[in-house]
Design brief:
CATH topology of the largest domain: Spore Coat Polysaccharide Biosynthesis Protein SpsA, Chain A
Distance between the termini: 61 Å
Helix content: 40-55%
Order of helices and strands: EHEHEHEEHEHEEHHEHHH
Number of domains: 2
Radius of gyration: 21 Å
Oligomer: single chain
Structural class: alpha/beta
Length: about 325
């Protein structure tokens, strides 16, 4: 599994990043400890216009690491544009999309290459599992988020070897590079649902999404309820773009409305939260979290729809 005689890498790891220099350093350190020889893969990091010193740190790191580390920078255009840029710049026939907060255990890259050895078809992808670092103490919200909440649904996939488009996550997934060149991510979707939209298109073209639960990546990103509300608001705006461009996706993923009765019920649960916490009422708390996060998706969706309609009015009047 070494590089070919010309020195070309077999695998390109493409990492989009934005303002996470400390976490990105941990990501790079874990990639330095891979079982694969350093010459067998390259790491292409695309800084998506970070307002801090991310690019300067990456430039220094490129001169001190054993990795084939290639730092790039672009104006802030969103995660989809950053990934597409990284894929275009990649030199290997296999591309692993890794998020800038996913720590790779020593065998992760080798598992992805093995997956493509077993599935050499141009339309095959290999998805790995993502979970919290094993040494972290998790609070109630983070435990729920990963096993019942809206972050990932990997707990539903254990024991399976294939996915459908609704469970396709681009934080730990590999492709044949040519497949991504021919089917880039939608750059209008800056963050959230960009992976589902891509997988929907690929599934329609006959792609197969293989799942390897032993290709584990550790999600080094502590989440809070308030933090995730902001994330869902942004995702709701992306959902609008996905639905506008692909009306057939409606009813298959995401939500676009919350009934007044459900909102009222959520407010009532919110009033009961202090009592539920004292009495250990976990189920009520989790129902409240889920409902409020749904409301944030809908709020983002409606904002994006209203903005789109306002932008269309002058054009219609000309």
């Amino acid at each position: 599994m070494s590089a070919d005689p010309a020195g070309a890498p077999r695998l390109s790891v493409v990492i989009p990043t934005y303002a996470k220099p400390e976490t990105l350093e941990l990501v790079i350190r874990h990639l330095e400890r891979q079982e694969l020889p350093a010459g067998a893969f390259e790491v292409v990091v695309v800084d998506d216009g970070s307002p801090d010193d991310t690019s300067a740190r990456l430039a220094r790191r490129a001169g001190s690491t054993s990795l084939r580390l290639r730092p790039l920078r672009q104006e802030n255009r969103g995660v989809s544009a950053a990934r597409n840029r990284g894929v275009r710049e990649a030199r290997a026939p296999i591309v692993l999309l890794l998020q800038d907060d996913i720590l790779a255990p020593p065998g992760l890259l080798a598992r992805h290459l093995e997956g493509h050895r077993r599935h050499p078809e141009a339309t095959a992808t290999v998805s790995g599992l993502v979970t919290w670092p094993p040494d972290w103490e998790l609070d109630h919200f983070m435990r729920w988020l990963d096993a019942g909440g809206p972050q990932f649904r990997y707990h539903e996939l254990l024991g399976r070897d294939r996915l459908d488009f609704r469970r396709f996550y681009t934080c730990n997934v590999s492709f044949k590079r040519q497949a991504l060149l021919e089917n880039p991510l939608d750059e209008e979707i800056a963050y959230g649902f960009e992976d589902i939209e891509l997988a929907h298109r690929l599934q329609a073209k006959g792609f197969t999404f293989h799942f390897d639960e032993e290709a584990v990546g550790f999600h080094h990103h502590r989440r809070t309820f308030e933090d995730f509300k902001r994330r869902q608001f942004t995702a709701g705006q992306s959902l609008y773009v996905a639905f506008r461009n692909h009306p057939e996706l409606r009813g298959k993923t995401g939500i676009t409305s919350v009934s007044p009765l459900k909102r009222l019920r959520t407010r009532a649960r919110g009033l009961l939260l202090p009592l539920a916490r004292r009495l250990g009422g976990r189920r009520l708390i989790e129902k409240y979290w889920k409902a409020r996060l749904d409301e944030e998706i809908v709020r983002g969706y409606r904002l994006a729809r209203a903005r789109d309609r306002r932008a269309a009015r002058p054009a219609a009047g000309r």
